[in-house]
Amino acid sequence: MGLDNGQVDGQALAADIKRWAAALGFARAAITGVDLSHAEAGLQAWLDAGYHGEMDYMARHGLKRARPAELVPGTRSVISVFLPYLPPAAAASEAVLADGAKAYLSRYALGRDYHKVLRRKLQTLAERIGERIGPFGHRVFVDSGPLLEVELARQAGLGWRGKHTLLLNRDYGSFFFLGELLTDLALPADPPLPAEHCGSCTRCLDFCPTRAIVKPYTVDARRCISYLTIELKGSIPPALRPLIGNRVYGCDDCQLVCPWNRFAVRSDDPDFAVRHGLDDASLCELFAWSEAQFLERLAGSPIYRIGYARWLRNLAVGLGNAPSSPAVLAALQARRDDTDALVREHVAWALQQHGVAG
């Protein structure tokens, strides 16, 4: 059992926690309780519709995602934080997307793996709390467990849920990572915002390339480009491949068109600085990487976890959608007999897009 408010000044400790979080680089930190029962019906409906696709872990954990105290017994308060990630010197997203010969990678993936960055900072925050009050029960989460992190952040007052399902903040937009520190401390909860601020805007729905946002606040992951290029392990459905364009790892379109992201803040964290020119690389250049180059250059990157075959699969789709050129055709021809069946399949499709029999 952790300390309760009879043993420590909860208000003072909460203020210290937010101050320490800011010193660690978090843009915002807030505290909420563990009751997410209001979100259970929506979560169950989403799972029942099959919108989670092949992400079986979401169905496996079921409603535990909305029950932090079941996930980590003894949890009484959740410290929710966010950290901006847009690198300061990255090529403009719109310019890269407009050039069909370029490879677009979601801006969160251009630097170091955010899981490690946020987990380290949150663990440091936990250590500072422990230095102040002594041992206490806690667990760090960074997109790493069955937890409704957006709902926790919304409930803590860090923002509101946009129609694209991401958290929005009036001062920071949505280009930030969320993280949580589950604790057994009885801390005073922050209130949610009194109102949402999307109004009648539907830009995220209207501009989604694959129409994955099937209605406000509901995403069908099976159509989402982020899911297709990251989570999906097998073949990308042929009908969706032309809609992916040159997006080879993730997709930012719903964020790029959101009016609130005119307030998006650039990160000065060196961990999120662009590596290996990934912000403005050509499809042909990346498709030519050997497996050894992929493993070396993307070590410590979130892209690393999809593996070399899926990396090539995604690039092949991008090349299939690229303007025809001798360089594009040569790149595809060089891998038409790849040892991996998944790669061969997508290369054959890409060649057919350029009028060449696979």
TrEMBL record:
Pathway: tRNA modification; tRNA-queuosine biosynthesis. [4Fe-4S] cluster 1 binds at residues 198, 201, 204, 258. Its cofactor is cob(II)alamin; [4Fe-4S] cluster. NCBIfam families: tRNA epoxyqueuosine(34) reductase QueG (TIGR00276). Catalyzes the conversion of epoxyqueuosine (oQ) to queuosine (Q), which is a hypermodified base found in the wobble positions of tRNA(Asp), tRNA(Asn), tRNA(His) and tRNA(Tyr). Monomer. This is Epoxyqueuosine reductase. It comes from Chitiniphilus purpureus. The gene is queG.
